[in-house]
Design a protein that fits this description.
Arc Repressor Mutant, subunit A, Rossmann fold, 2 domains, alpha/beta
Length: about 230
Amino acid sequence: MTPTVLVVEDDARIRSVIRMALDGEGYEVIDVASGEEARRQFAARAIDIVVLDLMLPDINGFDVCRALRQESDVPILILSARSDTHDVVAGLEAGADDYVTKPFAAKELAARMRALLRRLAPGDTRGTTYRFGDVEIAPDAGTVLRGDTEVQLTKTEFRLLCELARNAGIVLSREQLLDRVWGYDYLGDGRLVDAHVRRLRTKIERDASDPQLVVTVRGLGYRMTRP
């Protein structure tokens, strides 16, 4: 099946470059120049992945990202004109799965998108259920329960949690998590992992400021533990 990508970019030149690049990669491209039009197209079409500029003329990209994330767990890749930590982390905290900094090469953008669309099972987990305190993770069913309440995770958050659960007690570096969860080991950086861990903690920890399940091992990475 041909994946459909929604490109949200107000610069017509950049939008044209992205369209040509993704047409060549076999995507069906829907490109819009505003946040409002992005929300309309997202509601009207079956979108497989979103490429979202942060600087839009009407609604800023952070708010668009939050709105789309509330409706769907579709992969969202943000475009940032700056590489400073604040913009990148704020975009990831808003619900994005990955980011690319302008100017970017078309091949890099396509590679990031392929990685996000590659929905590999998180290892051989058939029939396995993981329990950490009151949190239950069922990879086969694609569900996470905290007590009797189902926790709503994005696909990336779910894959990250499953990877940590499968390796409970073992410290996984940011580089290992980038490779295993995002599907590449050279295009991303540690901020991507850190932002998703923070979001994950707000959903599964009793107190995200004092995590007991996903703990930081300073200088090394993250470890899943049983309280």
